[in-house]
Amino acid sequence: MPKYKHYDFNQSSMVVINYKDQLQPGTFEHAIHYLTHNKLDLSVFHDVYTNDDGGRPAYDPAILLSIILFAYSKGITSSREIQWCCETNIIFKALSCDTVPHFTTIANFISKYPESMTELFEQVLLICDEQGLIGNELFALDGCKMSSNAAKEWSGKFKELKQKRDKIQRQIKHLIGKHRECDERDDDEAVLQKQRLEQNIDTLDKAFQKIDQFVKTQVPRMGQGKKPSEVKSNITDNESAKITTSKGTIQGYNGVATVDKKHQVIIDAYAWGQGQEHHTLISTLERVLQRYRRLGFSKDIYKDGIIVTF
Prior knowledge:
The chain is α+β, with helices and mostly antiparallel strands. It has nine helices and nine strands.
């Protein structure tokens, strides 16, 4: 039987590498690195930093943006997982220059700059246009249903939410009565039962206050049909909606993207809190129109003979 050199994949090794050499031209990671460090104007992120004369140095936005974009391209959206990749993956180490931003830093960067991210997205579109990557002949619109960080159990029309609030109030009164009965007893079991009742009352009271505050400060949410009627609101995230998918009903959004045909460059993307995608068509087309006007591509892209599929 032939002999082969022994090898073991489950081992660690100290290897001397150059991080720049890991970002080979022609790869996606090289494109990200080049754009963030050479082409994009990241000054939109600078105003929030006040550590010019003192304080701890911050992570360069170019570093954070590079690792986040590369992670997203691999389907990695968890901030904790991105941090772990920066600790273990050689490409992430190269993009971050062997720094390891904490997952809270990554999450904060992602959520803190919605307007700046929009401006950055449009800078990328300008670069794509300079490179001839946008054909402006055919736009395709498609949607993807996404879950939000909100439970559908907290959804309901205002009448339903008020009924749920009143039911919780009745449960609290019932538990308070049970608690008073325990006060009349002096055994160990009564003490333990009182503790459980107090915990249950506290949990129910928080739920009651949450619903009560919502119905007193918000207004019913109306649908987008020809005859608008009330749709279910959500106490945790009222911009989201109950959406039916092939795998059941979720509380979330319809993520609608507009893609240019030539090289599948995304020219617009937005998360709509509506169950039906056709309600988003006019708003999406208007967003594309306004973006093209801002960027100077066209005053009215739809009069230029563009074809739109939905």
